[in-house]
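Bumping my old thread because nobody answered last time. Still need a sequence for this structure:
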């Protein structure tokens, strides 16, 4: 399980405040790509429908940053969703995620096609889902994650159940875990902490507001 931060004082400039169990990190090693569901994973699972039939969804900026960091860390984020909507397509475009399949009635077939196109094996794949359509992927992937409100059949098959809920940072937690297992989390964090402020020319790692 993810260890919540307990920081009575400000952390050292280059330190990370999250940690995962060593055995969990071993299970997640060797991952080269990760498939994420949308409804219930990148959102809270609720669908808002307007009077003209338009759909509205809420996405977490934490998750968006996590997916970007995953790419920077050499792990390809993939999206396979059973629904299709302009809102989801817009969000994926904003995040510059080119590998997405929408309206997938058979997620296994969609995943198999996507993996073949990218020349990836199931043994190098992680999956994050929350309901029965994701179970065929769970049965084949090397590593699996689920948000805490996922269906019971998914929860018992997940290697890791996130502390954060779907749509509220669950995907980011999965991304953090995969980056830690790949040994890339600390470097990515250090890169952000040592970026010079464009306006002041100061280094945020040296302190400040």
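Sorry it took so long. Here it is:
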């Amino acid at each position: 399980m993810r260890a919540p931060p307990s920081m009575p004082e400000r952390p050292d400039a280059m330190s990370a405040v999250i940690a995962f169990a060593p055995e969990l990190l071993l299970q997640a090693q060797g991952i080269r790509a990760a498939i994420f569901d949308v409804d219930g994973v990148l959102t809270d699972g609720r669908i808002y429908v307007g009077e003209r039939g338009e759909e509205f969804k809420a996405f977490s900026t934490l998750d968006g940053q996590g997916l970007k960091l995953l790419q920077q860390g050499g792990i390809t984020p993939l999206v396979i969703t059973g629904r299709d909507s302009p809102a989801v397509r817009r969000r994926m475009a904003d995040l510059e995620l080119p590998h997405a399949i929408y309206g997938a009635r058979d997620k296994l077939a969609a995943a198999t096609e996507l993996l073949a196109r990218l020349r990836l094996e199931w043994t190098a794949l992680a999956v994050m889902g929350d309901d029965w359509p994701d179970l065929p992927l769970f049965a084949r992937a090397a590593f699996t994650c689920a948000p805490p409100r996922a269906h019971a059949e998914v929860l018992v098959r997940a290697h890791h159940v996130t502390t954060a809920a779907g749509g509220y940072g669950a995907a980011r937690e999965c991304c953090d875990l995969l980056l830690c297992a790949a040994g890339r989390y600390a470097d990515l964090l250090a890169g952000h902490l040592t970026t010079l402020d464009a306006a002041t020319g100061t280094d945020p790692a040296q302190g400040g507001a």
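The chain has one domain: 27-183. Let me know if any region looks off to you.
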